[in-house]
Structure formats: C-alpha cells, structure tokens
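Slide 14.
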Amino acid sequence: MRLTAEQLSLSVHGTPLLIDVNLVVEPGQTFGLVGPNGSGKTSLLRLLGGLNKPKAGRVLIDNQPMHTLRQRAIAQSIAMVEQQADTTDRITARQVVALGRTPFLSALHPWSAGDDDIVAQALEDVDMAHMADRLWHTLSGGERQRVHIARALAQQPKILLLDEPTNHLDIRHQLSILELVRQLPITVIISLHDLNQAMECDRIGVMDNGHLIASGLPYEVLTADRLKQTFGVHAHLIDDPIDGKQIMRFSSVGAISKPSRHSELTLSLLR
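Slide 15: predicted structure.
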C-alpha cells in the first residue's frame, strides 16, 4: 500500500513544526526517517498515521485522501507504535496486544479463535509470549515497548509506522525487532536515531527544522557533508571485517586531532 504526503505543514501555537513536506513511500518499502532531535520526525509520523491533522496539505493512502476515510478504515490499514504510550488500567500484556484487533471487531464479527491466534503469534514474534499474563505495570520499559510493537502487529496493518521503536530495548531485541520489521511484506516507515541501523532501510529521508531536506537511497543521502551539516558530526565509512558491510564511524566536528576511543562512536548492525 502506497503512502503519500503532499505539502504537509503543521504548527502548534504559531510555531511551525513541519513545512511543506512531500513524500511518497511505495508499497512494500521500508523507509527510514532520520534527523536531529526536534527536527519533525514524530510530528510527520503522527500526521501520516492520522493521529493529528495538518495545517495544510494532505495524506493519501493508495491515492485516496485520508481525510475522506473514517477512523476505523484508517485503523484497518495503518498501525503506529509511538515513543511513549502508557495506560493506568490494570491489564495484562495479552490484553494490550488484543487491542490491536479492535478495528476489526463488530456485532457481526465478534472476537473469535482466529483473533486469539493472531494475538498469540504477535506476542511470539516480539519474544513476549512467556510474559503474556504479566500485568502492564510490572513490565520494564523495554518489555512494554515490545508489547506495543506486538499490538501493532496484531492489527495486521498494510502500513506500519514506528517512532524510534528500539528505544529502551537491549541490543539483542533491537536486532530481532529490526529484522522482523524488514521481513514484513508491508509498507514501513521507521524513525531511527542509529544511522547505521537506518542504512539497512530501502530508502531514507532526512528531517531538519521541519523540512524533509533529502530523500533517496541510504548511501546517496547520508553523505559526509550532510552528516556534518545536519548532525554536526564527521563520518567516514569502514568495512566490517566479519561480513564486509560498510558501517559509519563518527567523531565530533569540534575534534582537531585524531579522535580518541572515548570521543568516537562506532556502531555496526550485524544480521
């Protein structure tokens, strides 16, 4: 399913958060959204998910304007995992995931064994089946994040929006969640802080001060000049000795001499 943004703009109390954003994500693509803190990534995802309304512009789902669709129809096509989503209800992890089936339930289509199977599979996919009966308030931040991702999977969306889904996750679960997302036969837009993880996406968009300043193939977009201008870091590519993949190595722009081990950040995403 194709997702399109046409000249999207958003302001809050007169402060512009997004300015004339145009974007097309083709069916089945995994699109990585990167940018500094406050660049507009979350605001864009919330507009694409129908959670907020733009000041100007529009979102289209397969060429159909989102504002013409009922919320139920949107929820049957798009699922979103936000950075922070909580509940004060005393419910279990399984019950949270079951909320993902809500858009498909009605008097004519009540809960069924098929819904039980979908919820069970979603919990299994994020390695939370063994905690399905744990109460929400007893879960750690990382465990809650995995449950939220499972809820989105239980929704069986055609488009999945993920706002920094690896936050709070240990490295093992970061890798497993990203690998799961890459294998999904759906359209995915994922906001990421880790630029090496973003390099695994089909395409990348760079946000800066509310503008989408670049969009395209990862190695064409995340150039040394753009990383310096947008993120304020020096970067160069090195070859991973294990699998030959290229990874980015970063150092502070203010560093005059060769950066020390403590001033460098080397990140590698190994499948």
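Speaker note: The chain has a mean pLDDT of 90.
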